[in-house]
Amino acid sequence: MGVEDRLSIGTRASSISLAVNGGLALVKLVAGIAGNSYALIADAIESLGDIISSAIVWGGLVIAARPADSDHPYGHGKAEPLAALAVSLMLLGAAATIAVQAVQEIRTPHHAPASYTLIVLLAVVAIKETMFRYQSRTGRSINSTAITVDAWHQRSDAITSAAAAVGIAIALIGGKGYESADDWAALAACAVIVTTGVRFARTAVMELMDTTPRALLIDEIRATALRVDGAMYVEKLLVRKMGPRLYVDLHLEVEPTLSVLKAHGIAHAVKDAVLARHAEVADVLIHVEPARTTEANRSSYISADQA
Questions:
Q1: I need a labelling partner for 167 at 20 to 30 A (CA). Which of 37, 69, 93, 120 fits?
Q2: Are 246 and 280 in contact (CB under 8 A)?
Q3: 3-state SS string over 6-34?
């Protein structure tokens, strides 16, 4: 998939999210104020945060699509995990805000919410879950951390809205003495938001810290390199994720007596093989070394490198 195609798919998903969240925030805020439901008002506040988060994701995708330049030789892909981290921190901030306000509402006597607020929340749950599924598929298809985090932001909204719906139902059925049930539901939903926020903040930070991708992928790239004639051993293999693309640094051992020209040709063949077989790899940097005489020597060298 080309950079422009990926950008088009990603920004379309973010734009749809932006529009949906804007409409839902307005509906929930009006219904919450008119229907005396703090859980619904809290949900509306969280949706206002969703508008900002969708805008951040959109911006991250646009910046990440910029080509490499002299100041950013590996491209601008880190803009995506930065956007994902910002959205995760916004989730945590929203949870803290809702929790504080919910506690205040619990401590303040108030009327039970109107029955129609329950209908509004059930509709919100259905819409948010649909948005989660759409953005989740999109995030996987273009390998975007930012879109995936935004998708789970939608899922957390669906969960908080479902919790609020349960709280309102209890308040309506229970009658006097159960007026604060939806506030307790809002408070309980904060735990879900915090869990989601921490989870994706960790994922974004790991990507920003160049955490090595899954071990299976490393093994697959190594196997591809060693299928090339003349490639004797892959001494070191480092992979970093930059947005949707991977950059590979590879130390390749070849026959010590080969000419520079022949060793260079083998290295180019390895690079071409890896790029052809692994579409997510953007570039391969290969350092050619003379093959070690024994496996023990190789192991000793690698152990010293890792120490």
A1: 93
A2: yes
A3: HHHHHHHHHHHHHHHHHHHHHHHHHHHHH
